[in-house]
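Homework help thread (please don't just give me the answer)

Our assignment gives two proteins as sequence + structure token strings and asks us to describe the second one. The first is just a warm-up. Here they are:
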Amino acid sequence: MFLSKERSSRIAAGWQHRCTAGMFLEGRMGLLTGKYKYAVETAKGFHLDGTTEERDGKLFFKGTVQTQDQANKIWDAIKTIPDWKTEVVADIQASAASPQTYTVKPGDTLSKIAKQYLGDANAYPAIFEANRDQLSDPDKIKPGQVLKIPPASPK
């Protein structure tokens, strides 16, 4: 097969896999990119905002995903390959901070928790809304429940 000088130069220059805002641009797949395809696809599935690039015998992941759980799952995918420590350089960050939590104690109310964590007892509906998955009534919380505490609203 005949390759133009320009195409041949691009291939010789190496392969780069770049994603921005979740969009992946495919290039010639390198050896490590193929070896770590599961990790690259996991990053793609979580819309990694950054780059995945193979150069100098290493695969570089750099970017952000929405949650720490997503970042951890990408790391888990990378670590499925025993050689990852010598073949991968990764800087994968979560853009959203993990939510703060609070474990309910006897005598607690959402108002008391809101006063302590949000600075305003009347902000209890924000805690209630953040925990709709486990609360059906803001007056019925139980010791031992782990509640998500939303960020305080700016005043």
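The one we have to describe:
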Amino acid sequence: MKSKSKNCIGVLLSVLLAVSLTGCGGGGPTAPTDIPSTPTGVTASPGDGSVSISWNAVSGATSYNIYWSTTSGVTKTNGTKITDATSPYSHTGLTNGTTYYYIATTVNSSGESVESAQVSAKPTAPTALTEVGSYESSEGLDAVYVVGTKAIIGFVNIDESGFEILDISDPTTPILLVHKSLIFNSFGTLYNVDPHSFYVVDNTLLYIATNYGLYVSNIQDPTHPTEPQLIYSDNFWAVAVVGGLAYATGGAPSGLAVIDLNSGSRIGFYDPPCCSNHGVYVKGNYAYVADGPDGGLQIIDITDPYHPIGVGQYLGRYTFDVSVKDSYAYVATSGYFQIINVSNPTAPTLVKEIGVWRDAGSIFISGNRAFVSSQELNMFDITNPTSPELLGNYQSLYAGSSVSGNTTHVVVVDYYKMRVFEYF
């Protein structure tokens, strides 16, 4: 009897338990969402003052966290947390030369994963320019202008002068597209025309400042440029073109000539203090002229192009070239790279002067980089114009070499060689 009672009680309890579970949801409780897997494939790549962190996507993740430290062994407990990061994540504002350590985690509604494997990277500013390609010429090269992936170089020789256009879309292997002679015909006598500088408008019209005048050629098809046409005859050193007007330096008498490109006539002229004008840069209502041995930097108001007026100057050194960005003029001079505050054009002030090897003959600005060419190529960080930082240097160039470039490469003509440098 005792055994039978126990069996009955057991059956009753089993029935009650089954009824109870059925009333609480039929299929039993819902399983919780699993905590996501740890990120894999985590990498850290250094940049200039930055590190880029990447990882593989994790199924079920709603977000990712990064933890970092300047000490190895970073964890969720001791690391500095960056929430809601997306891959790749750029960690900026870092100190070059310092190693940064990182881990990544995955997050969803159930929580946060364990840490990934640690990775590290050391932000580094470029310490040298890297020559990645070159082009050998049988001619003497003396000018360069880069537009997009095309480099225009001027050549001068006893027998022939003119320009060449090269494709630098693959900077390691520049390809010659055309070799074009420049000839001046004076009553049946032919003279070689020496190109001093170039200026391109709309990737189409190439303006050439030469010892015989200002020329123009259509280079829309760079393999078949049109025959250069003389616009205005004079001995010009440099040219800038804005709004249908050319601002050319040099000439006789030496000065800044304003030329109407439609009529081919000189409509304005300004005679700076010195006799040997070189580079010119036009920005807004002002033309900035590198005025040779005694004139320094000249600032000319061109609001009325028929009557240019000199409004300011900074004297002191033989000046070869100038470029302007924001409120600062960057000037290549005899043995120095100058940065001049021109926010008040009537009273330019020197904010920094840095010595370079031999005469700085050419200057090119790209973003926060300034490239100064002499018998060496110097690259400066001009993020803070009052405190520029030398980032890279390449020596053993020909004196007075010319420099131009685009957003990733600079090109220098070095007498018989065109050199292509990568920078960042």
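TA reply:
I won't write it for you, but here's a hint about the kind of observation we're looking for: The first strand starts at residue 43 and ends at 46.
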